TrEMBL record:
Protein name, entry field: GatB Yqey family protein
Gene Ontology MF term list: carbon-nitrogen ligase activity, with glutamine as amido-N-donor
InterPro entries: Asn/Gln_tRNA_amidoTrase-B-like (IPR003789), GatB_Yqey_C_2 (IPR023168), YqeY/Aim41 (IPR019004), YqeY/Aim41_N (IPR042184)
């Protein structure tokens, strides 16, 4: 089952169960995917879908941080539920150990030695971990290994 079919099935299930948060979140994801399809002018590839899902995830993480600053606990809880729903469509995230192993392998592949090689490492690394690791965490690990 591809992502579009999964989203439609989840929408129907959320309607039957009268789960408003899940229904609204799935609708937002579907809308974001449709907007991306229109913007690109072709059917979405797996990478395109991952990009959209990661964007949705990041938006919710930023919203949670803003709501915490604004002391809006009611919105924090609702947004955390939305975030969990978005994450359910993303591939399993890499553990820190798995990510470090991939970083070390990539550093060897591109023959990086100094911090100046950071861009080369990230360029080689991102296709390997797309959607499975946070970019900030990844860049921190790369910097640690290039010291």
């Amino acid at each position: 089952m591809n992502l579009s079919e999964q989203i439609m099935a989840d929408m129907k299930e959320a309607m039957k169960n009268k789960d408003k948060i899940r229904l609204n979140t799935v609708r937002m994801i579907k809308s974001a995917l449709m907007n991306e399809k229109i913007k690109l002018g072709h059917d979405l590839t797996k990478d395109d879908e991952l990009t959209v899902l990661n964007r949705e995830k990041k938006q919710r993480e930023e919203s949670i941080a803003d709501f915490v600053k604004g002391k809006r606990d009611d919105l924090v809880e609702e947004t955390k539920k939305e975030l969990a729903i978005v994450e359910s469509y993303l591939p399993k995230q890499l553990s820190k150990e798995e990510l470090e192993q991939i970083v070390v392998e990539t550093i060897k592949e591109v023959d990086a030695k100094t911090k100046a090689d950071f861009g080369k490492v990230m360029k080689g690394l991102m296709p390997k971990i797309k959607g499975r690791a946070d970019g900030k965490v990844t860049s921190t690990i790369v910097r640690e290994h290039l010291k």
